[in-house]
Amino acid sequence: LMASQNVDFRLPIVHKFLMDLFGADWPDVWVTAVPGDPNDRANVSCWRGGRAGDLAPGFDDTENLYYSVSVVKSGRRIAADFVRAPIIVIDDVGTKVQVTDVQKVLGLPRWIVQTSQQSEQWVYRLGTPIEDPRIFERIMKALAAKGLTDPGTIDAVRAMRLPAGINGKAKYGSPSPKVTHTLFDKTRPDLDFVDLCFALGLDPIETLDPDSHPSLPSSSKVGGTADLAKPDTILRALMDLGRVLGAGSEVGVLDIE
After folding, report:
1. What are 70-82's pLDDT values in tens digits?
2. Pairing verdict, β 29-34 and 50-51
3. Which residues partner with 220 through β-bridges?
């Protein structure tokens, strides 16, 4: 019901972004707002987040703003509550991932979110949402194996940045750079699942059967260090259990009880 109502957002671009990519499902996308450095141990409670329909209208541009790449149940960003993924997001374009490599395989995206001066997240909308997290992760692993996304960002409920707010990571100094969008092209065609599989060298029928996936070649790219915004399987499990206290005393290290 809320998706069809005129919702008052402090940041209209957040509403436009969520509506365009998730349609009527946008209220059930996980979101959160994290002040200051998102890896600061004092902010661990902020990572619980909740439903976009409840939280996103109140967001302002002074915090780190995140959303999940999939629709989830009850505002919980855990694999067990995955419902569907209507988008694919390529992270670290311009730094770890080359612009020309992504364009060659996927073409230009629907949205480009600039997360720092040289790094972007490219957002593609799927023609048909993926409704099994294993299939989604199969696609993301294939992208990572080709060096087209950070290997640490392939899980089906990972957090990406909304096109607003700040990037408060300590390495960017003060004042924190703003996160914004540099492209929104509503004329871009949605990604076709079969075409996407062929572009990644996958058999579409086999890919749709999550129980028959062959092993993928290892990527030559090196994954990043521990990051609350991009948890791997083990870190995600610890976060779900409430065991992660926040960033440790060294870069890339987290405190876990």
Report:
1. 999 999 999 999 9
2. antiparallel
3. none
Task: Give mean pLDDT, residues 17-34.
Answer: 97
Residue 2 confidence (pLDDT) above 50? no
- Dihedrals φ, ψ of 201, to 5°? 75, 30
Whole-number pLDDT of residue 128: 96
Give the pTM. 0.82
